[in-house]
Structure formats: C-alpha cells, structure tokens
Structure prediction request, 166 residues.
Amino acid sequence: MENNLSKGQLTWLVVLRIFIGWHFLYEGLVKVLNPNWTASAYLIDSKGWFSHMFVNMAGNPLVMKSVDFLNEWALVVIGLGLLLGFFSRLSCIGGILLLLLYTMSHPALIGVEYKLPFEGSYFLIDKNLVELAALGVLFVFPSARVIGFDRFLCKVLPAGFRKFLI
Prediction:
C-alpha cells in the first residue's frame, strides 16, 4: 500500500484499530476465562427479525456449545489480529460479520425492550453499528500495512492474497 496518509490520519487510524482490537480481545478473554459463560440468555432475549433462529439456537445444547466456542474465540482472534495488525483486513471482515450477527439478534428498534441490561437508549444506531462502521473504515484504510505485522506480510505473500487478507 502506498502511504498517502498524513501522520495525523495514520496515527488516528492505528489508534482506532488498536482500540477496537482491544475491545474485541477483552470481550473474548472475559468469556473464555469464565467457564460458566454462555450466550444462551442473550440469544433467548433476541427481538430482531431473526429472533426465531437465535432462540432456536439457544434451545439446542449442542448448537449452543458450538455458538459459545465460536463467539469466544472469534472475539479473541479478531481482537489479536486488529491489535497486532496481523491479517487486519480479514480481521475487519470477521468483526463486521460478528457485529452484524449481534445487531440481527438485538437491533435498536423503537419500542423494543430487552430483559438483559442494554447500555443506553438507542434509536436504530447502537454501539455495535458504530463499531461496525469503524471496521469498514479500517478495511478501506488498512493502516496495518504501514504500522503492523501486515507490513511484513506484504513482502512475503503473493499479490492475490495481499489484496484481500491484509
């Protein structure tokens, strides 16, 4: 990637990437380190257009075990990728997909109340969508190609991989 960004632009893109990476990593580690954690109550509380699917997932113990494992470790892996600037574009895509799932389960709709505590009162746009948009910015401005492990991956990976992954 040719770096046409000013120092200020690059600095704030890296700060944004690190902050979001830390948030994902922390959320994942909290879940991984708590043997009693499960997304079951969250899924049962789903009120979105796809609530039936999420409630059904929570009702199946085998599916729920897989959902918990995938959610925990996806958060950790995405967080590490963003923090270290390692396969950062792939990490952005993974983060966007995860946040879309959270939004599909718990959209910020008018008049919808959730049993689980919600941070604030939102109208259509909540923190998940804000973070999703920020990941979109990081995807199109891949700062890790300048400051991160992706800088070194650019030198060793074939061009076809570089365009999408880093």
Summary: The chain has a mean pLDDT of 90. The first helix runs from residue 7 to 32. The radius of gyration is 17 Å. The chain has eight helices and no strands.
